[in-house]
Amino acid sequence: MTRPAADVLAELTALREADPPTHGGRVLSYVYDHGRPELDRLAEQAATAFLPVNGLDPTTFRSVAVLERALVARARTLFHGDDDVVGSVTSGGTESCLLAVKTARDVWRAADPARAHSRATLVLPTTAHPAFHKAAAYLDLDVVAVPVDVASGRASAADLLAALDAAGPRAALVVVSAPSYPFGVVDPVAEVAAGAAARGVACHVDACIGGFVLPWWGDVEPWDLAVPGVTSLSADLHKYGYAPKGVSLVLHRGRDRHRAQYFATTAWPGYPVVNPTVLGSRAAGAMAAAWAVGESLGDDGYADLVARTRAATATVRAAVDACPGMRVVGEPTGPLLAVADDGGVDPFHLVDALRRRGWLAQSQPAMTQPDGTTLPRTAHLTLTAVTDDVVDALAADLVRSADEVRGVTPAAVDPSLVERVLTHGLPDELAGVMATLEALPADVVVPALVGVLQAAIDPGPSA
Ligand SMILES: *Cc1c(COP(=O)(O)O)cnc(C)c1O
């Protein structure tokens, strides 16, 4: 019954060959490529060395404690935290954000015994990452989503602070992004953090995507732990930290806050449980790889990768600016661009046209905000250091794709598509599906999306 290893590995290789290329800059979201094969080898070897250990217990596997401490220390310096800043390595940005929310909720509850069983309120801009909505859903907080400026995509400090005032004593946390994923724009961190501090409310900076770019980007207004009033910060090592997937950081100002992140219990007949993060058993491979990549790159290495990323971003931006019918939303700080229709280039058609040329951009549906204003439909591009190697081809194909779809009527909304996608899977051309998702109400779209993804991993009837 056993299969030869070579046979098993060949099957895995074949599966991977059918995936989009994770290297080479063709996939403009999800993957982060530095373009240096020797750094990939280092990450692989570091991860392999740590595959067998369990980060659950850093008193047994002291190697994990050493690496975690080193990563936190490095990040604390990078993000201008003082000796009062501590934190944890997590499995990813979602977990870092979830733990920031859990910490804020528990600190809020501990401040007043009457709050022990009350719901706290989480205030965020509409552009905040859904990880915060997920955290609120898991941890029973109310969310107040505050509209951002439609033209710039940037959160308004005054509006966020007004929302804190409206929430009154229930306000436990306000979130700002550095930068936001949808539009790549850095929110007014200093103003929000100062206002939050004055109200006794915690302030989280979500630098999941920007944390390992902004320190070397240049021309960025203060956004990190140097800003008074910022109580926590998340930064993903598995994005521009160029580590393999499964590693992020959450930092807190104050050991008391960090302690509120922990879960500990002796209420079972087994070993005493002390978990800093959501997971029990913790993989340490990605953590070791993150540490190794950081040691190898050093400050100069990151600076060099960011310089290339910035140059590539400027080239792509210039191509969009020069091309009639489309525009970049706002003034992004960092390597994320959202391209909106500006007289004839439908972003969903643009994404399909780019895909036909071998580039995977991401469709972002329009969103009506709570105040009735609408954030535009866009095509999202995440650019990395390796983009620099292919940037002329990307810029040229963006223009060719725009030329091809300029004036083409946006895809029609077709509710019957929902059923067809559920039974036949997703088509290659996604413009119609995206237009339909955008138009239908959430109570139709959300179960349909879950259905599609559930079907993707359903083994079906047993043979
Ligand atoms: C990626 C991202 C997250 C969540 O990170 P995951 O690693 O995908 O779980 C949170 N916030 C922002 C701004 C992000 O870009």
TrEMBL record:
Keyword terms of this UniProt record: Aminotransferase, Lyase, Pyridoxal phosphate, Transferase
Keyword Transferase: yes
Record family assignment: Belongs to the group II decarboxylase family. Sphingosine-1-phosphate lyase subfamily.
Top-rank taxon: Bacteria
Name of protein: Aminotransferase class V-fold PLP-dependent enzyme
GO function terms (MF aspect): transaminase activity
Pfam family, one: Pyridoxal_deC
Organism for this UniProt entry: Cellulomonas wangsupingiae
Entry annotated with the keyword Lyase: yes
Cofactor: pyridoxal 5'-phosphate
InterPro entries, alphabetized: GrpII_AminoAcid_Decarb (IPR050477), PyrdxlP-dep_de-COase (IPR002129), PyrdxlP-dep_Trfase (IPR015424), PyrdxlP-dep_Trfase_major (IPR015421), PyrdxlP-dep_Trfase_small (IPR015422)
